[in-house]
Amino acid sequence: MAESPPREPEPPTERTERRWLLAMCLLLAVMMAVVVATSLAHALHPPSNVETIDPLSLHLAGEFVENNLGAALEPDGSVTVRLLAQQYSFVPNCLILPADTSIKFRITSPDVIHGFLLVGTNVNTMVVPGFVAEVRTRFAAVGDYTMPCHEYCGLAHHDMWARVAVVPKDQFSQLGSTQRRRCAIH
Ligand code: CUA
Question: N or C: which end of the chain has fewer CB within 10 A?
Fold first, then answer.
C-alpha cells in the first residue's frame, strides 16, 4: 500500500486570510440583520404621522387649498397651522403665531421631498409627497424663527425658507386669518 505523501502545512498567510474572510462575512450578516430588523420594527415609514393624501389634487379641494393655509385658531384655544412645502417655497412663507400656545403644524408637499425645521425648537421633520406630516410645539418666547428647507429638493433648495414671527397671545388674537400670514404688519 502506497503511503500518501505527508500533507504540506498550510501557509500562515492563507490561514489568516480565511479567518478574516469569515469574520467579514459574519459582520456583513450581522449588519444586514440589524438593517432588516430595525426597518421592520420602526424605521421604514414616513416620519411623525402616517396619513396619506393625494399630492396631485392638493390645490383643488380639501384641507390644503390656498385659502385654508396658515394659522387657524381652534375652539380650545390651540392653533393649527397648515402649510405646503413646494419647489421652492413654503406657502404661506410667513407666519405670525402666538407665544405660549399649543401649536400643531400640518404640512405636505405637492412635488418632491422637502424638510421642515424651525430653528431652536423641536420642529424637525421630512415632508414627503403623499403624506401629511404633523408636528406639535409651543413657543416659550416671543421672537423671530427661521424655517429653512433642510432636505435637498432641487436647484433652488438653498432659497427655500420661510419665517415665523411669534407674538404675544393677545396680539395674535386680534389678527384676522389673512393678517396672520403677513409678517410685514409685525
Ligand atoms: Cu425644499 Cu429643499
Answer: N
Identify the CA nearest to 103 among candidates 71, 149, 56: 71
Q: Is 148 within the bounds of a domain?
A: yes
Q: Is the entire prediction scored with pTM above 0.70?
A: yes
Residue ranges making up the domain that contains 35:
12-45
pLDDT for 1 beyond 60? no
**N-terminal to C-terminal alpha carbon distance within the chain:** 104
Taking the CA atoms of 22, 25, 30 and 33 in sequence, report the sign of the dihedral they define.
Answer: negative
Domain count, the chain: 2
Tell whether 72 and 156 lie within a shared domain. Answer: yes
In a domain, 4, yes or no: no
**Is 91 a pocket residue for ligand 1 (Cβ < 6 Å)?**
no
The residue whose C-alpha atom lies closest to atom 1 belonging to ligand 1 is 114
Residue 157 CB–ligand 1 contact under 6 Å: yes
Share above pLDDT 70 across residues of the chain, in percent, rounded to a whole number: 91
Residues 160 and 83 in one domain: yes
